[in-house]
Amino acid sequence: xxxxxxxxxxxxxxxxxxxxxxxxxxxxxxxxxxxxxxxxxxxxxxxxxxxxxxxxxxxxxxxxxxxxxxxxxxxxxxxxxxxxxxxxxxxxx
Length: 93
What we know:
Strand content: 15-25%
Distance between the termini: 27 Å
Helix content: 55-70%
Number of helices: 2
Number of strands: 2
Radius of gyration: 17 Å
Largest sheet: 2 strands, antiparallel
Shape: elongated
Low-confidence stretches: none
Number of domains: 1
């Protein structure tokens, strides 16, 4: 799930940045995005994006903070997987 998790949280960060950047634009012209993810049965995350009608600045701040923290956790997960694989290779060698 490490790589797809990173990909999903990157999409969340991109959508949050987009929504924050277009928050001051006329509502008729602005397109806001919401990103959600579903865990796959065989592992990983399936990311879905949809358009929504309005942007709430407070909600976007919370989404941004959550996405940053989740991305950092996924990075640590990938690093741990890499360390464990390296240890396993050292043991087998």
